[in-house]
Design goal:
mainly alpha, 386 residues, 15 helices, 2 strands
Length: 386
């Protein structure tokens, strides 16, 4: 079965070269199902049905992202290299759909709040570094997870280095926040959720509409598949928001994994400032299955793996050349550090930040796009097409 290493490192093939249907891979399907069931049981013992529901949502997101080949790094690269704007138009459609619920939470009776982070020097630097890293690794936070689950050799290298970089970033963040910060800057109208929602949608719509107009001007059609994937992901994001009390995030789970591994190796992680803050300290003291981000990351890997196995996409995965693996490792470290300094990735900072009406999300978008421009021009050094 032919597999081309596209922007996501794998392409699901419904048929082989002769046009015959591809059958599911029974062994991997059974493995994914058994592993998922075992983890679900452990989650149930730890956090009950609430945790199992979030784990299942992570699995659904992994399957949907892989099945629809929905990513961020490639869409940004196509825009910067060729001017293709369809992907970015879809991203802002997703942001707008999420904003409808995130910003209206009080009016909807939801005990949930959006993601608001400081506008700081660390944000600017972190987002820029992340943009470089995601172009070298060929994927962002969610892209690394679902491609890893789908059997990508590149992401098998990128993910552990992403985890390592995230841990390093957690050690650096407290000092980085002293470089200068304006504090949290929500784009909100005091005491009026409806007005805040309308105002933020009035900011999101022209940007998304502008990318859609550029796409139409170039003769690009918005594929129904892309629209369907965007809507499904938005619905899943709404459910995560309602169940967890905050928008979906990816990279803190990586940071926690790195801290747990380091602690097991004797590193006094708990002595570092970041891990003395209430949220990180609580996560460090409990199981990796008790943290929402970590839990959903596990689910996303298994969901993507199950989708790839059912679709026959695991049968053949060519191992990337060494230079590309070096790029994946470097990209993973840069994304890990950048995600912590910049308060998240394309999901936790760009999507959740803008959809939550936080100025930091817009700044993250601009700086990560600038970093992507640099990363694209660095890709040939690692055997990757610009």
């Amino acid at each position: 079965v032919p597999v081309s290493f596209t922007d996501f490192d794998m392409t699901l093939q419904a048929t082989n070269l002769a046009g015959q249907p591809v059958s599911p891979e029974r062994g991997p399907v059974v493995l994914m199902a058994t592993t998922g069931l075992a983890l679900a049981c452990l989650v149930a013992l730890d956090t009950g049905t609430h945790g199992v529901a979030l784990f299942a949502l992570g699995g659904a997101l992994g399957a949907v992202f892989l099945g629809f080949q929905y990513g961020f790094a490639s869409a940004w690269r196509r825009f910067l290299v060729a001017g293709e704007a369809t992907g970015l138009a879809a991203h802002f459609l997703l942001i707008g759909l999420c904003a409808l619920v995130f910003l209206s939470a009080p009016s909807l009776g939801l005990a949930a709040a959006g993601s608001v982070a400081p506008v700081s020097v660390s944000l600017v630097i972190g987002a820029f570094i992340f943009g470089i890293g995601m172009q070298l690794a060929n994927g962002c936070g969610s892209g690394v997870l679902f491609s890893f689950g789908g059997g990508s050799g590149r992401m098998m290298v990128a993910l552990p280095f992403f985890v390592f970089g995230s841990l390093v970033g957690s050690f650096l963040l407290p000092s980085a926040l002293e470089w200068g910060s304006l504090g949290q800057m929500p784009i909100a109208i005091a005491g009026n959720a409806v007005a805040t929602t309308v105002f933020n949608l009035a900011l999101i719509a022209p940007v998304g509409g502008g990318f859609f107009w550029l796409a139409r001007r170039r003769g690009e059609a918005m594929p129904r598949r892309l629209i369907a994937g965007t809507v499904i992901i938005a619905v899943l994001c709404w459910l995560v928001f309602a169940l967890s009390g905050h928008p979906w995030g990816v990279t803190f789970g990586f940071t926690l994994w790195g801290a747990k591994i380091a602690a097991a190796l004797g590193v006094p992680v708990e002595n570092y400032t970041f891990w003395q803050w209430p949220g990180p300290r609580r996560a460090l003291e409990h199981s990796v299955l008790a943290d929402v981000s970590s839990l959903m990351d596990f689910g996303m890997v298994l969901g993507a793996g199950a989708m790839a196995a059912v679709s026959g996409g695991l049968r053949r995965q060519d191992w990337p050349p060494f230079r590309q693996l070096v790029g994946a490792a470097l990209g993973g470290v840069l994304m890990g550090i950048g995600a912590r300094l910049g308060f998240g990735c394309n999901i936790g900072a760009f999507l959740a930040g803008i959809a939550s009406g936080s100025l930091h999300g817009w700044i993250w978008f601009v700086m990560a796009m600038a970093g992507s421009w640099v990363g694209i021009r660095t890709r040939p050094s690692f055997g990757l097409a610009a």
